[in-house]
Structure formats: C-alpha cells, structure tokens
Amino acid sequence: MDAEHHEEDINKDNSHEQGGNTAKYIADSSVPGISKFLRMMGIDCACDCSYTDAYIIFIARSEDRIIITRSSKLHARLQSYENKKAKLERQLEKAKNTGDEEYIEIIQDELDEIKPLKYYWVESLGRENQILDVTGHFKIRYIPELLFSRCVKCNGKVRRVVNKNDIKDKVYELTLEKNDYFVQCEKCDNVYYGNEQGNAFQKKLWKSARDLCNRLSYEDTTSH
Ligand SMILES: [Zn+2]
C-alpha cells in the first residue's frame, strides 16, 4: 500500500468512529497522564488543571472536543445534560402527537440550545491502563511521523527552527552551541531540542518514547 492510500485508510478508519487520531479532545485533571501522552503522539488534547467543569464543557462545545474524564462530579453533570435532552425529546414527541405548534416550537428551541456533548468516562485505574483504555476506545494509532509534533506543555503545534539565532534568548548558550535541531511551539514559544539523530541521551529518549507509543497506542489487529 502506498503512503497516500495508507493515509486515506487511516482517515477513513477514523471518520466512522467518534474519535480517532484526527478528533480533538479535552482531558481534565482526573486523568493526569492522558493529555501529555496524546500530545506526544501529535494528538490535539486540551488540558489545564485550572479549568472548572463548566469551562471544560464550554470548550468541548465551542471547539467540538471530546471530554475525557474520571471525575464522578463531571460525569454526573454530563449525564444530567443527556437526561435533559432525552426528556425534551420525549416531550417533543408528545407535543407532535397533540399538534400544539406553539409548544413544539418552544421545545425545539430548548433542544437547539443543547449542543451535543461527546465524552468518555475512563473506568480504568493507573496511568498506563487509562492511556490504553482511551487509545483503545477511540482507536488512536501511533503515527511515527507525528511523534513530538505538539508541545506537551500547552498542546500547540511545534515547528522547526530554521535559524538558531532566532531562539538564542530561549535556551542556554551551551545547548545552542551543541545542538542543531530545535523546534518551537507556535503557541507558547517553548523551545525543544534534539532528535533521534542527536547524542546518545537523545537517541535513548526517542527510542523509549517510540517504545511507549507502540505499547500504549491502538493497533488494529483485524486488518492484518
Ligand atoms: Zn506550547
């Protein structure tokens, strides 16, 4: 299979599932390892421990993100929205039967205001189990080219620094001197250095990151 078709295949696989590599996620502080891991794999995952439940819901709705949580408080709140929606839908059915146009309109307006929320309640305990749970549920695959393509700190995309001088105020002099590969976050300006072709330490770091991604990502065993 050539690269183009392989890419198409990945996207096709992801589109039928609510999630996949191309969806956007938001994790809360009840699942601490998830966002860093997903970002490392290049997946868009918002997370900030200062976010309140209401704000997480607001972001999920406005940015079309899937909520990942283990918080029973947030889970209860999300379920209450679902219950409210189900109740309104039942009322709408009844109203349609009676043909009360004005009432139908009122319920429809209320329903329109409840934007759909997607969320996933993580049942597993422990960092690695939770990651496996999430990547398995959403079929999130490890795509080697996307490793470290996002800032683990803020979720922004990183881009290659062409001219080392541009970041000389951001890193130690010795780091600047000893390295030739730098990337910078488009959002928070944080600079990362080194790659697989770097020194022994960098090689080791990349290898362990790749091993971790292989081990904790989703692998479709049915297509092999
Ligand atoms: Zn950043």
Automatic annotation (TrEMBL):
Keyword Zinc-finger belongs to the record: no
Bias kind Basic and acidic residues: ranges: 1-16
Pfam families per record: Mut7-C (PF01927)
InterPro entries per UniProt: Mut7-C_RNAse_dom
Coiled coil: 71-105
Region (Disordered): 1-23
Keywords annotated in UniProt: Coiled coil
Presence of the UniProt keyword RNA-binding in the record: no
Residue ranges constituting the Mut7-C RNAse domain according to the UniProt record: 24-198
Superkingdom of this protein's organism: Eukaryota
PANTHER family noted in UniProt: MUT7-C DOMAIN-CONTAINING PROTEIN, MUT7-C RNASE DOMAIN-CONTAINING PROTEIN
Protein name per UniProt: Pomgnt2
